[in-house]
Amino acid sequence: MGIHLERALLFCTLLVLTHGLEIPDPDHIDYIRQQAKAVINTTVSLKCGSSMPTLFIWVFSKTEFDSSEALAYNYGLGPKTLPLANTLGDPFLAVNTSSLQIMQIQAEAEGIYTCQALYDTDKGPRVTFYYTHLSLQGQQNTAKGSGSV
Ligand SMILES: *[C@@H]1O[C@H](CO)[C@@H](O)[C@H](O)[C@H]1NC(C)=O
Ligand SMILES: *[C@@H]1O[C@H](CO)[C@@H](O)[C@H](O)[C@H]1NC(C)=O
């Protein structure tokens, strides 16, 4: 029995590492959607819930029809950011928080950020997906769309 449990845990860990968090029972998954707007070259802070999850991964996709790629994660061994995140600006994942900060945000960073968070609770694991649709605009002083020709 112990061996089965260990195998199951190992299998779960491998799924987490290869595909992000995957929990088969959809009743234990919550989906939260939010919108964010920011100006290029400023700092954006993307929220992933109010308490620190046990495990989490941030993924990015250009649109909801594109595939998602991992940006940053913390599987309990400390925060890690991946090379893709560096193409969007200057990424930062602080210790003890699941918020993804991107300083000097670039135009390419417009898109959908999903934080897949797993919380280990007394009633078993709960997974929450936080989707943030980020739109970006240029600096105000570029006078874009002011109507003058
Ligand atoms: C992170 O949380 C742990 C456990 O609560 C604490 O011991 C540690 O000091 C915290 N680290 C930082 C940088 O806040
Ligand atoms: C962002 O900053 C860079 C470097 O300072 C500058 O060249 C660029 O014009 C800025 N972009 C916008 C949209 O403000």
From TrEMBL:
| Record keywords, A-Z | Signal
Q: Where is the signal peptide?
A: 1-20
UniProt protein name: Ig-like domain-containing protein
**Keyword Signal appears in the UniProt entry:** yes
Question: What is the protein's species of origin?
Answer: Silurus meridionalis (Southern catfish)
**InterPro entries attached to this UniProt entry:** Ig-like_dom_sf, Ig-like_fold
